[in-house]
Design a protein that fits this description.
single chain; alpha+beta; 5-stranded antiparallel sheet; Phosphorylase Kinase, domain 1; 3-stranded antiparallel sheet; 10 helices; Transferase(Phosphotransferase), domain 1
Amino acid sequence: MTNHLIPYADLDPSLILTAVESVGFPCTGSLLALNSYENRVYQIGIDDAPPLIAKFYRPHRWTNEAILEEHQFALELAANEIPVIAPILIAEQTLHTYQGYRFALFVRQGGRTIELDNMEHLEWMGRFIGRLHATGAYKPFQHRLRLDVQTYGRGPYQFLLENNFIPAEVKTMYCYFVETLLEKIEQAFEQAGPIRNIRLHGDCHAGNVLWNNAGPQIVDLDDCLMGPAVQDIWMLLSGGTKHEVSAQLDRILKGYLAFHDFNYAELHLIEALRSLRMLHYSAWLAKRWEDPAFPRSFPWFNTLSYWKEQVVDLEKQVEVLEE
């Protein structure tokens, strides 16, 4: 059974392989851990068949209803011929349970990293995201998060304070800049006016895009949520200068508009959303700090130098939002 204090404490290779076999896939015994922190993801060898990918969901993070909404969204995208790696249906089920762990199986898919400095790739991604959002706008999530100032800003900030993660040496300045930043973020949302929230990928950065000869394919809908469309666009902007960023954005939107309308007022939210991601990321690491994998993988987190750097970065974001 799952350990409430240390997630995955009992998830050993024997349990993983037995879980996969419990839904009808005899294993060869081959098991390769893949790069994933939030969940545990493995490539599993299957007798007389290609390997499968097994994803074991972090205990106590999502409700079953929220996970099933993720799965349904992926299947809906796949049904509309939008390239996404959707969970395998087994006896009409996508979410399975073994010894208290919830898991899903996926077909293994290869690919390379998207070239963010390739304008043709960016326009192709724009078309891809436009198609994804055309499906995402069809109906809302009922059990997933909504991306707003509370869920990605004030909530994470409160968690860091209540659990004493901010060192005393920088706490006054950190709190000042966070609270100032939250005010600026709220102002940005007000200035943007009415924004339509739709179903999004939610974490659409280069690491979650596989590229092959057929174009992009999205992986990992684990963070899908309701929010403004520009959330799935801004993380693909990598230019160093304003001119480069503007050129990249133009190419993405050129592709996007071929399949879905875009509210240009949402461009006012890019720096606000970047700021919320910074706050959310610190709290995400803090909430996982009891998981032994996190101190090993992120040894720089929760050090005095980390929080000092956060103060500097938050101050810069305040200045950007004041422009």
